[in-house]
Amino acid sequence: CFRSWGLSAADTTQGLVLGIYSKEKEDDEPQFTSAGENFDKSIAGKLRETLNVSGPPLKAGKTQIFYGLHQDFPSVVLVGLSKKAAGIDEQENWHEGKENIRAAVAVGCRQIQDLELCSVEVDPCGDTQAAEEGAVLGLYEYDDLKQKKKMAMSVKLYGTGDQEAWQKGVLFASGQNLMMPTRFAEIIEKNLKSASSKTEVHIRPRSWIEEQATGSFLSVAKGSDEPSVFLEIHYIGSPNANEPPWCFGGISIKASANMDLMRADMGGATTICSAIVSAAKLNLPINIIGLARLCENMPCGKASKLGDVVRAGNGKTIQVDNTDADGRLILADALCYAHTFNPKVILNATTLTGAMDVALGSGTTGLFTNSSWLWNKLFEASIETGDRVWRMPLFKHYTGQVVDCQLADVNNIGKYRFAEACTSAAFLREFVTHPKWAHLDIAGVMTNKDEVPYLWKGTTGRPTRTLIAFQSRQCLVQIRKNVFTLS
């Protein structure tokens, strides 16, 4: 382990993160987790003795640091987990206990990192996967472009916990952190090939894109000198290679205050691709195809002009009355192409509208779908991950605002400035005939300020873990069905 992190025996100073539950009653003694109890016994009760003097951290996410209690762990961070019995909160639509663990472990690991220790062991806190997700997500910060970088710190499970759940937590959290700002297609290709031999990657050039008659997508890229790329990735995890796949898909001139955030407009593509990379690493018995259309929207004499009419892959014409509404133009052709694979499900994620940020903020992803089954499955997965989704209306009322168009079959913006997230979803629906389709508008969850305690500021990779959980749960259901049939 030390070699893998480039450490010498002299640099093996490590910290320990332990959890503690809130008191049920005022007169109760603080209740450690199982790992905390074992640690306290190993040091003859010194931790509890110290707590009786100083008082424990009672609130979720609050911490105390102790020094010199154990020769192997010179620094011990005790983190508050709130109530031990915390479960699914139906008002919040998440598992409160899991979220408390993620938040607490993230805070504890960051404190160990601030002490510049090279290694940390983490209490499983009753949910090993949630603890590891909190550790990995809490410690991740993109600093590749900075001269001063934080010390790389190894993270290990404390005690004899569930190693399988620990590794699952690593994959879920690492998948969310796969948000790369440059060389997108090449990096995804590299990650997929290292994840599994069951993958195929096609980086389609502009010549191929033009052959597909994807006028909607190409209209966005007309003003850029950067070559457009259509990234198509296949993961063949099912024993039946011919089984219908699950199809997943994902810079305009703006006010200066928002322009810097446009580097995260590739968030939908990274979320989708990261979920597929994680599925490959988990060796899920499922076939998945990921489609990511990558291009720049830049101004020049060749760029699209207001009022231009372009033709999408399904033959429908689009009047472009807002060149800033570019994401839906790119998605339209991707959705048309997705149908050619005869998939079981079509799901797209995109940072589509600022209106979604206004409506829901960073609390949850807005989800539009024509399938109640798909909504229920994604919703159930989001409760477990804490990265929530919320169903938004896909009414014909909004369709009328985009198909009432002067020059073409459909307009890329609604007649009115209201309900933009809904009218954009209605626009996408014009290019979908599949009965199980979901559109995730992730503009609100694209970045983190300080709302999610186990994520750093900046781009978040949300809701990758929810998509991974959704895939995993469907595979488990399929496996159970197969077992029942065979018996």
From TrEMBL:
<feature type="domain" description="Cytosol aminopeptidase">
    <location>
        <begin position="174"/>
        <end position="468"/>
    </location>
</feature>
<comment type="function">
    <text>Cytosolic metallopeptidase that catalyzes the removal of unsubstituted N-terminal hydrophobic amino acids from various peptides. The presence of Zn(2+) ions is essential for the peptidase activity, and the association with other cofactors can modulate the substrate spectificity of the enzyme. For instance, in the presence of Mn(2+), it displays a specific Cys-Gly hydrolyzing activity of Cys-Gly-S-conjugates. Involved in the metabolism of glutathione and in the degradation of glutathione S-conjugates, which may play a role in the control of the cell redox status.</text>
</comment>
<keyword id="KW-0645">Protease</keyword>
<dbReference type="GO" id="GO:0006508">
    <property type="term" value="P:proteolysis"/>
</dbReference>
<dbReference type="InterPro" id="IPR043472">
    <property type="entry name" value="Macro_dom-like"/>
</dbReference>
<keyword id="KW-0031">Aminopeptidase</keyword>
<dbReference type="InterPro" id="IPR000819">
    <property type="entry name" value="Peptidase_M17_C"/>
</dbReference>
<dbReference type="GO" id="GO:0070006">
    <property type="term" value="F:metalloaminopeptidase activity"/>
</dbReference>
<dbReference type="InterPro" id="IPR008283">
    <property type="entry name" value="Peptidase_M17_N"/>
</dbReference>
<comment type="subunit">
    <text>Homohexamer.</text>
</comment>
<protein>
    <recommendedName>
        <fullName>Cytosol aminopeptidase</fullName>
        <ecNumber>3.4.13.23</ecNumber>
    </recommendedName>
</protein>
<dbReference type="Pfam" id="PF02789">
    <property type="entry name" value="Peptidase_M17_N"/>
</dbReference>
<dbReference type="GO" id="GO:0030145">
    <property type="term" value="F:manganese ion binding"/>
</dbReference>
<comment type="similarity">
    <text>Belongs to the peptidase M17 family.</text>
</comment>
<feature type="domain" description="Peptidase M17 leucyl aminopeptidase N-terminal">
    <location>
        <begin position="17"/>
        <end position="149"/>
    </location>
</feature>
<dbReference type="InterPro" id="IPR011356">
    <property type="entry name" value="Leucine_aapep/pepB"/>
</dbReference>
<keyword id="KW-0378">Hydrolase</keyword>
<dbReference type="Pfam" id="PF00883">
    <property type="entry name" value="Peptidase_M17"/>
</dbReference>
<dbReference type="GO" id="GO:0005737">
    <property type="term" value="C:cytoplasm"/>
</dbReference>
